[in-house]
Amino acid sequence: MNESQNDFRELKHLLKLKRHESPPPGFFEHFSDEVVNRIRAGEARSQSSVAERLNDHAPWLVNFLRVFEAKPGLIGGFAASLCLLLVLGVVLAEHSESGPQNVFTTASTESASPDGSSAVPSAVPEFASVGAAEGGIAISTNASLQPVASLFGQASGASLFQPASFAPAH
Amino acid sequence: MTMSEPAANPNTPAGMLEGDLVKRAQRGDLQAYDELVKRYQERIYATVYHMTSNHEDANDLAQEAFIKAYSALKSFKGGSTFYTWLYRIAVNKTINFLKQRKNKFHLSLNDIDFNAEHDPDLMALISDKTPTRDVALSELQKKLNEALLKLSEPHRMVVVLHDVQGQSHDEIAEIMGCNIGTVRSRLFYARQQLQGHLAGYIKS
User: Fold this and answer.
1) How far is B73 from B82, CA to CA, in rounded Å?
2) Per-residue pLDDT tens digits for B80-139
3) Which of A47, A92, B24, B83 has its CA 20 to 30 A from that of B147?
4) Shortest Cα distance from B170 to chain A (angstroms)?
């Protein structure tokens, strides 16, 4: 083993020559900058590839966004109309507070009597009509609390309530 | 009284520990990664250069190794040192490149620095019959690189890491993903092969 190690001594000396091979002067001064620049370029390319994928799958959305790029004033108009829609939605929701309650009432009564003959809907008109007939006070509910058929599609909900009045019956 | 050199500011990337730089780079801090590149660029480049004997290829491969390491940095859990992990990426990338290129080698050697002419071990190898030392060194350089390129990639890698770059058997085993016995046997076989290829330049 010693013999072979001695044999390799000259080879090792010769291999030391490789350590003296140096790249051109200043090569390492810009090396890290090039690496970082390539990383940044790669990141930018991956971002652009996202845009390309969006263009492939939803070209209408890209065209829509391009309109905004071309006419920045449209962004303001679009945002204002979105805000207006939001405000309208809130106002409509406030005016239709009783809507969901009616839906639940309908649902609960329907589930209570599978045969369709509900006790509550029939009781209210009866009470109102009785009161009126006996010279009592007829209950008048606020008209705005009636269900909004257009919002909930409960056209039948109108039959659940009967406008009543507290005015003395004649 | 001795004047000690001022310590690097630990708040700047240059003064940070490797572990902190790696954590910052994992969060996407390119300044921290730039510092890591600066710390290892020479060793990574040298390894790839000695494997390819081509400066342009070494430049490309070393850059690509650093870029790949950055993209894979989130998967680095610290099981080994960052240095070993980075080396492994560079070594695998280089071996894959050489396998794709097969045996089509094109030498593009770097110049030998001035210090080589003052190395007594090297000078002892140069024949007295050679007209000038410069010619002798460049000829020797070419023959040495050609002989290295005749080795298989794993054998060349072991010689480069051990005899040229001075890495230990343990480190080489970790970098190459093999056991120390394999490293030793590859090194012995590679040296034998090299000695045969360079018989005219080495006293037997």
Assistant:
1) 9
2) 899 999 999 999 999 999 988 876 778 888 888 877 777 777 777 775 545 555 557 888
3) B83
4) 20
Q: Which CATH number fits domain B16-110: 1.20.140.10, 1.10.1740.10, 2.40.50.140, 2.30.40.10?
A: 1.10.1740.10
Q: In the predicted model, is pLDDT for residue B146 greater than 50?
A: yes
What pLDDT was estimated at residue A161? 56
Cβ B14 vs Cβ B32: under 8 Å = no
* Spatial distance between the Cα atoms of A13 and A11, rounded to a whole number of angstroms: 5
Provide the residue ranges of all domains of chain B, joining segments of one domain with +.
16-110, 150-197
For residue A38, list chain B residues with Cβ-Cβ distance below 8 A. Answer: 63, 67
Chain A contact probe: residue of B21, B42, B44, B123 with most A CBs at under 10 A: B42
Q: Is any Cβ of chain B less than 8 angstroms from the Cβ of A95?
A: no
Architecture of domain B150-197: Orthogonal Bundle (1.10)
Pair of tokens at residue B96:
């894959």
Return the ∠ at Cα A90 (arms to A89 and A93), rounded to 5°. Answer: 85
